[in-house]
Amino acid sequence: MALTAETESRLYRSLRVAAGAAAHLVALGFPAAVAVLARPGSSLFSWHPLLMALAFSFLMTEALLIFSPETSLLRSFSRKVRVRAHWALQLLALLCALLGLGIITYNKHLNGKGHFVTWHGLTGLLAVLYTGGQCAGGVLLLYPKLMKNWTLAKLKLYHATSGLVGYLLGCASLMLGMCSLWFTTAVTGASWYLAMLCPLVTSLVIMNQVSNAYLYRKRSQH
Questions:
Q1: pLDDT tens digits for range 177-209
Q2: Which residues make Cβ contacts (< 8 Å) with residue 173, sequence separation at least 6?
Q3: d(Cα 131, Cα 102) in Å, to the nearest integer?
């Protein structure tokens, strides 16, 4: 028996709500697990994985999910409130990422190790720099008159698209970090694969959210 359009719409919405709920749980659960594993304060290095997990798994994921019509924790608030919360979370994510980058750089300096000589290090550096640029680019949305030849709708779309690239870079850095000797020594077997799934789950949810926003804009133009 074929599903009606209304039933398909409800089913799709239910799946999006379930996926969003899973993303919220993963966004919080992954940094919590990293905190248990790293034991922040036990060494200088211990702060690096926690800060990066907070930046790219928790804060940045929540900053993007704020605009989800199904799973935003602030969906009952005005868009103005959600935009301010998005800004606050993104700035906190950038602060954590910068601190995490500074700590690992100083730690390598103390131990006489090379800087940014691995794919994890290079991707992490690029993700942090990109996040800084993305936050600076977000200022254009506050002052759209600075871009006279661009509509506000187009600026929002490009900001969301470029933000997705930065988010995926952050998730890639997390996944490469889980291939490091420190992580693979502490986490083995099924637990390692489960950990690797965490950035993948949130990435898929965020990509779906951004693609839906793009399709909605295309439909509204016709």
A1: 999 999 999 999 999 999 999 999 999 999 988
A2: 52, 56, 120, 123, 124, 127
A3: 15
User: How far is Cα 60 from Cα 211, in angstroms, rounded to an integer?
Assistant: 18
Tell me: pLDDT of 89 over 80. yes
Residue tagged 């602030």 (tokens): 74
CB-based contact 205:19 (threshold 8 Å): yes
Query: How do the residues of the chain divide into helix, strand and coil, expressed in percent and rounded to 5?
Result: 80, 0, 20
SS3 call for 151:
coil
52: CB partners within 8 A, 6+ apart = 96, 97, 100, 124, 173, 174, 177
Among residues of the chain, what percentage have pLDDT more than 90?
69
Domains, the chain: 12-217 (1.20.120.1770)
